[in-house]
């Protein structure tokens, strides 16, 4: 009997305003989300593993300028990019992550190589890039990542003295722009991947939850895979992804109850906005958010495709 397989992806959660979202921009975003989830699902459909599926799905979003990861990353206070990413494979609970990389086109790929080709879990900054170049990664000039939108956003935030998102001229400037994917493959293996450019106008080598296993990313066979998106500092404090997994493991909660308890309850109590995607060992998919929207898409165990933007979709 065929084993179930499924995948879900996200492109960030937060305040996504309908009245500022043009139909043209919405169509571009929906197309990117669809392309991402289909890229991952095609691997699962052919019997491929969940790790490769989530990495390929995230790469699509990193290559798009519509999301805060890879090409569309927000800019630091010094007008540079500092990108973070992590992956986790549920079979042996192996993981890899990078933080503060500036010249790597697809940080999620580097996180995967840290997991598979090093003795470590997390590499940062120059060291992460040294490892990358030793493993035949091409040096990518920072200009590749810069977009007019992000330059305008940085200028606005500097003028206002802000370090995080605030409404400008785009419908999702107050959105936490992490991207991520979770998947279950035909062998019952769970995996998760998360990637981000961080928060705009950040200083001092700030790192959020996306690079931290147990906060932004987790995968555990027989239980759940999670990728989170939101206010990184608070997601770290609440250990969001790991907390979902723990509630399911120790309390026996289903993926929907565990996810919504964290996102709608405990996280909100300490001022955290955002959301997460999760998939359990049977392929049941959950999207949980306490914000007005989350860019998201999924292909469930029945093969049904869903692509959505707003919380009430």
TrEMBL record:
One GO biological process term is: proteolysis
Q: Where is this site: Cleavage?
A: 177-178
Highest taxon of source: Bacteria
- Give the matching Pfam families: Asparaginase_2
Q: Which residues are responsible for catalysis?
A: 178
Parts forming coiled coils: none
The cross-references to Gene3D superfamilies, in alphabetical order and at most eight, read: (Glycosyl)asparaginase
- Listed InterPro entries: Ntn_hydrolases_N, Peptidase_T2
Residue positions binding substrate: 206-209, 229-232
GO MF term (any one) = peptidase activity
Keywords on this record?
Answer: Autocatalytic cleavage, Hydrolase, Protease
PANTHER family registered for this protein in UniProt: L-ASPARAGINASE, N(4)-(BETA-N-ACETYLGLUCOSAMINYL)-L-ASPARAGINASE
- Please state what the protein is called: Isoaspartyl peptidase
Species of origin: Candidatus Photodesmus blepharonis
């Amino acid at each position: 009997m065929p084993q179930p397989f499924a995948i879900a992806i996200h492109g960030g959660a937060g305040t996504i305003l309908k009245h500022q979202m043009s139909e043209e921009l919405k169509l571009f975003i929906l197309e990117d989300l669809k392309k991402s989830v289909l890229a991952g699902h095609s691997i699962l459909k052919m019997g491929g593993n969940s790790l490769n599926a989530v990495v390929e799905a995230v790469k699509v979003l990193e290559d798009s300028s519509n999301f805060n990861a890879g090409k569309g990353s927000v800019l630091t206070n010094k007008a540079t990019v500092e990108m973070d990413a992590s992956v986790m494979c549920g079979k042996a609970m192996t993981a890899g992550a990078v933080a503060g990389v500036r010249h790597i086109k697809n940080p999620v790929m580097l996180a995967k190589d840290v997991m598979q080709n090093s003795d470590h879990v997390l590499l940062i900054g120059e060291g992460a890039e040294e490892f990358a170049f030793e493993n035949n990664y091409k040096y990518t000039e920072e200009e590749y990542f810069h977009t007019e939108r992000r330059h305008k956003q940085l200028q606005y935030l500097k003028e206002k003295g802000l370090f995080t998102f605030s409404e400008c001229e785009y419908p999702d400037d107050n959105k936490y722009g992490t991207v991520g994917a979770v998947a279950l493959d035909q062998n019952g293996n769970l995996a998760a991947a998360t990637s981000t450019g961080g928060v705009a106008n950040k200083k001092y080598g700030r790192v959020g939850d996306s690079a931290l296993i147990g906060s932004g990313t987790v995968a555990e066979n027989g239980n759940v895979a999670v990728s989170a998106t939101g206010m990184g500092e608070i997601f770290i404090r609440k250990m969001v992804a790991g907390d979902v997994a723990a509630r399911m493991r120790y309390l026996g909660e289903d993926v929907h109850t565990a996810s919504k308890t964290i996102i709608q309850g405990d996280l909100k109590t300490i001022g955290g906005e955002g959301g997460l995607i999760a998939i359990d060992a049977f392929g049941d998919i959950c999207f949980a958010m306490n914000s007005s929207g989350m860019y998201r898409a999924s292909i469930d165990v029945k093969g049904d495709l869903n692509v959505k933007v707003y919380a009430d979709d």
